[in-house]
Amino acid sequence: MINIFYQIIRTARPRQWLKNLAVFAAPLFAGTLFHQSTFNLALSAFIGYCLVSSGGYFLNDIIDAPRDRLHPIKKNRPIASGKIPLWLAWVITFVFIISEIIFSSLNVGTYFTLSILMYIVIQMAYSLYFRNVIILDSLVVASLFVLRVFAGGFASNTSISSWLALTTIGISLLLAFGKRRSEKTIVAKYTNTAGKTRETLKHYPDSLLDSIITMASTYTIITYSLFTFQVSERATSGALVNYLPSILKNPKWMMLTIPFVLYGVARYLYVIYEKNEAESPERVLLNDKPLLVTVISWGLLVSAIIYLLP
Fold this sequence. Notes:
Blueprint: H1 2-12, H2 25-30, H3 36-68, H4 86-107, H5 110-128, H6 136-156, H7 162-190, H8 194-197, H9 206-231, H10 238-241, H11 258-275, H12 281-287, H13 289-307
């Protein structure tokens, strides 16, 4: 019994829940995250996406089980290895998804619930079709990152900056195509069955993935820089102004966070090309200490600028 419970937790992938922190982005940058009602709604949205994303991972592993058995790492997944019976996997999938739809409709709101339904539809479409279509497979994965950000806005009734949306698209593309690049490297290192484990891997030229990753990195840095310029349109506290020179009476404080993003993107590229460990973005974040420190430092600085300086 204990072993089955452990395997269920493994398949639910709690580590992947880090991606769902994206639902806090809209209220964070709007300066309303720590309003009690807003925070409660955003927290409910986070819990909701944890439930539905775990259901999606179960569904994905059920469909992928035959191919996962040919993968040097994924063959050890509980469903592929037979540690979780197929019938039990289906039951858990439906429990997660149905419970989340009920939870979100009762505790969050209509638009957020619609975003959950859209997530389920996209996840199913990916597992059944798009995962086998080159380029579209990564674009669909990236769309799920973007959907989380908008879902956070729906849940907390917070508008989303156009530049924040564009920055999210850039980061999502970088993570999705970086994941493909690392998958191809890992599969090629351990086995010659890349086409059997993931159909699209054999169609991705390294040069194409490298070009798209470079494009996504540049796009992310540019859009984030413009985003920081936009959201910095706010007054500085009078106490701080007294200590600043005249040319810095109304500085674009958020632009101070740009170096953290520059380093973070560069470090992620290093992980992709030198450490070959970007197959799982959340694993990279937790295991690569320089990147983890950079993300935490960026978050603290952003919070300080938005909530302490005005």
